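Thread: quick sanity check before group meeting

JM: Hey all, I'm pulling together slides for Thursday and realized we never actually wrote out the predicted structure for the chain we discussed last week. Dropping the sequence here so it's in one place. If anyone has concerns about the input, flag it before I start.
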Amino acid sequence: MADYGHELEFGSFLTPSTRDPRGVVDLAVLSEEVGLDLVTFQDHPYNPGLLDTWTLLSWVAAHTRRIRVGSNVTGVPLRNPAVLARTATSLDLLSGGRLGLGLGAGAFWEAISAMGVPALTPGQRVTALGEAIDIIRGIWDTDERGPLRVAGGFHSVDGAKRGPAPAHDIPIWLGAYKPRLLRMVGAKADGWLPSLSYLGSPTVSESNALIDEEAERVGRDPREIRRLLNISGAFGPSSGQLQGPPEQWVEELLPFVLEDGFSTFVLGSDDPRVLSVFGREVAPALREAVAAERASSGTAVSGRIRPAAALALRHDGIDHDAVPDSLAERAVEPGDRAYENVRSTYLWRGAPGLVLRPSTADQVADAVRYARTQSVPLSVRSGGHGISSRSTNDGGIVIGLGALDQVTLLDRERRLVRVGAGARWGEVAAKLAPHGLAISSGDSGGVGAGGLATTGGIGFLARSYGLTIDHVKAVEVVLADGRRVTADADHEPDLFWALRGAGANMGVVTSFDIEATELDDVVLAVFAHDASDLAGFLGAWGALVEASPRELTPFLTVVRQRGQVIGQTYALWAGDDTEAAVAALEPFLGIAPVLQQQAQLVPYSGVVAPGRTVHRGEGGHRMRSALVDHLDEGVTRTVAGMFEDGGTGYFQIRSVGGAVNDTPADATAYAHRSQNFALSAMLRGSAGGHADDAWNALGATGLYLSFETHEHATALTRAYPPATLGRLLRIKHAYDPDNVFHANFPVLPA
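JM (edit): ok, ran it. Output follows.
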């Protein structure tokens, strides 16, 4: 038997004792601190001395950030497989894709039967486990249309709804020792998870042969199946297998990797010192020893092995074998179970050939260097909420930054916050709320930081705080050649200028240092008006906004519902002065018949609540943008006419002005510092070109690229005035002369 080439992983196997529940969690946290990759727990619901495993897994996931959690193993007889599938999905979604599912056919049947489960023969237990796996996989398979039906002899579903899909491909590991179960590992599982103390007959070599033979019989590559091993031992003087100093452990575990194919070692111990030595000394030393042996023997690290059906879906133009090792494990392709979760954005359904999901800035650099060698489109995605259609593609590569989501308060006195490009603004608001701080950040908590903070950032605090980019103090960015640089006022100042307003053309931003504002509670008001006289309503609404104190930032959405035109205002007063807020808000009630009104004092984090919804592409609507100084008669009549003739049925206004216009026009690549309103409209395809013609006649003095979905001749010149565009062209030539980053309304190198 040979090495299967998987990267090594190390984990802990903790006793979930009810005597010291907090101590179990502390050991799990310690497992993460000492560098282990996985923490697992046995699952014996019939044992009153043990915590419920799934409750514990959830609690541990909430108290950790990086380490994966798993059952070791869950006995299927006491866990309804359809419910277990949704339990696992929920935990995987809540933990950000950190769950592994160990399953077993059930042991200790006297205790299981005492819980009300009829006893099964050994053969029946294996059959029942196979049925359970089919149901679990079926519930997770949201690509398959229609309800799930599995007519098993022990586990059945008849018309069960599928979904939701997990955050990642949850691996299923089987604890197996006998031939029939070992064959099931080869046919249906992602991993084999025995315990060293139970291995005997068949031997490890014979067991691997059975697994591999069955995998090949059903058309799988045996390398798809990771071999995991539960071990136990102690550190001290040498007295037996895994009973000695760390170097003895390394020597004894090395053959398990190179000769038996095991690549994950899970240590059963509740001793903090043993876990610490295992994570900090044995794990790195064994990795080093395995790497040396593989290098000398020419054994390639296999990375992630995909089945033949997935390989057949690969796109031409992408060299999948050249994907860097640092990215291969988390990369997603068509045919992967996670593909449906990462292919699309909020509005746009994509079909990329490869989605890379780096988790560090160095991995982003690896992704950029790799992507530029491939002859396919490249898109960069932070949150995927943006409507401009630029963060997905068909047949190309997407670099997804969702894992770069850290939010760190660097300096409370200076109000300086470091925000990862993959963070969502709701998470940023929630993290800053306990410190009495906030950053203006769009109008939805699900929006990603990267896209907004490189384009502008028109948020509910715009008139009081300014644009998000106005408070960016430093940016870490990966350039087209893969270099990582930090740009600020003193370092790479031209790049720093360009990143604030045209960042997507210059590189991949991995983090921002942003100056927050002091803010606790705010007043949020929501008004709905009958806007049948749309031109008059818009004119009156705009005049009130311009006359309002800058603490007030109103947004307006106009829609046609059942033949009636309704204007809904969301207005935020930046502060807790309710009397001043009411004085500023009351005039809005008199501009048209009021259909609904409410106002409340809430934390800013409640206005932009956290959200990490999986995007499925809601239809790909054509959106147009315009920046205007005033809602004058020409603007209001044009918009009203578009509603009347069917050119649009959905229109929005975001207030700018105020603090936005305090920043000089040449201070950032976003140069529009005189306008008071940002307009956007969804144009109906049935309206033909006249909707575009009407929009072009608005008299706009600029546009906001995040709300513009299609390229057209005037897009760049309206987004960037001549002096701004000229400077951008020169900077583009200096930092991206080969135009690697050209998907987002390309600024071509001068």
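AS: nice. The mean pLDDT is 93. The longest helix spans residues 272-297.
JM: adding both to the slides.
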